[in-house]
Amino acid sequence: MEEFSVKKANHFKILTVLTIAASLSLGAYIYTAKEVSISVDDDTREVISYDNTVEELLKAEGITLNKGTYINVPLDIKLEDNMNIIIKTPKPYTLTIGDVQDEVVSVHVKVKDILKDMNIELGEKDYTYPELNDNVVTGGEIKIFKVKEVVEETQEVIPHENIVNNSNKLDIGVVKVVQEGKNGLKNIKVKKVFENDKLVSENVIEEKTIEKPVPKIVEKGTRNRLASSRGNTRYKKAITMTATAYDLSYESCGKKPGDKHYGLTASGTKARVGAVAVDPRVIPLGTKLYVESLDGTKDYGFCIAEDTGGAIKNNKIDLFFNTAKEVRNFGRRKVKVYILE
């Protein structure tokens, strides 16, 4: 009877030990469970895992990491309670710079983060669309504008001014240059702005005169009255001409008494003092004239353009005299011929 009691007591001890061991094992098992947060592209879920490493957990959850996928912890790190695992999958975007487009992928959605991921640095004046702090939808386009400013210097001519002053000291139709004009010069600075090598604006930022222009000053004659023995006579134009003289001698006109047209002008009038020969292209026949001497001698005076001559071309005039002596004495000289109204 005593032996049975001992055996019963031993059996009870064994059961107690087994119960305690089982309890300890269950407690250890429960103790190894970990609460973990998994975020995949901002989709977050909370899980309780008994896995040993992050890689085992992802496999158990059916999460596959493709090439380029971002994860914030190493795969072989041991799971810890309250661990946050962040996963970002790569997304396609179109990157445009000028006329060049590239298809890129990045785990980020904010423009500045995507560009940083692509190792793209922007200059101080460069900008993007959308803006750097904006998010881009998957498959969206990011436009980059590379801005370059260039200052160019050029020189430009400053045209001189033309000043015309009327002068009653000069005959009408006469123009006298009092001062020759001269163009000036200025230096111009222009700022040009290029976006992706295309000119988008240019502005003058500085103009500096290097040389001032000198105006051209001209006096225009307005005098149209001639003081003569008949008083003041109005005229339309005054021309400085070379004057010669002729008479009815054969040496002058190439005709002898009795020849056809001897003693007659080209207009059919009688050759006489006051009838002069001209170039009809310059002075039409029949024009009333006044011939003024420019050497201090007596003026030839009033006359009419009635004759022509083979040697009388352009600004030449041939004055009729009665005698060969007067012709010789006159010779060749400068005169001013007034075309009368």
Question: What would a concise description of this structure say?
Answer:
The chain is α+β, with helices and mostly antiparallel strands and 341 residues long. Helices cover 16% and strands 45% of the residues.
Summarize the structure in words.
This protein has 341 residues and is of the alpha+beta class. The protein folds into four domains: 45-88, no CATH class; 91-145, Roll (Ubiquitin-like (UB roll)); 149-220, Resuscitation-promoting factor rpfb (Resuscitation-promoting factor rpfb fold, Single Sheet); 224-340, Beta Barrel (Barwin-like endoglucanases). It is 16% helix and 45% strand. The protein has five helices and 21 strands. The strands form five sheets. It has a six-stranded mixed β-barrel with strand order 16-20-17-19-18-21. A hairpin with a 2-residue loop joins strand 15 (225-228) and strand 16 (231-246). The chain is rod-shaped and about 155 Å long. Mean pLDDT is 89; it is low at 1-9 and 14-30.
What would the keywords be for this entry?
5 helices; rod-shaped; 341 residues; Ubiquitin-like (UB roll); Resuscitation-promoting factor rpfb fold; disordered N terminus; alpha+beta
Strands, count: 21
Helix proportion range = 10-25%
CATH topology of the largest domain, which one? Barwin-like endoglucanases
What's the number of structural domains? 4
| Secondary structure category | alpha+beta
Strand % is over 45%
Order of helices and strands: HEEHEEEEHEEEEEEEEEEHEEEEHE
Catalogue the unreliable spans. 1-9, 14-30
| Shape category | rod-shaped
Distance between the termini: 177 Å
What is the C-level CATH assignment of the largest domain? Mainly Beta
CATH architecture label name of the largest domain = Beta Barrel
At the fourth level of CATH, the homologous superfamily of the largest domain is RlpA-like domain
Strand order of the largest sheet: 16-20-17-19-18-21
Number of H/I helices: 5
Please state the CA-atom Rg, rounded to the nearest Å. 58 Å
Average pLDDT works out at: 89
**Biggest β-sheet description:** 6 strands, mixed, barrel
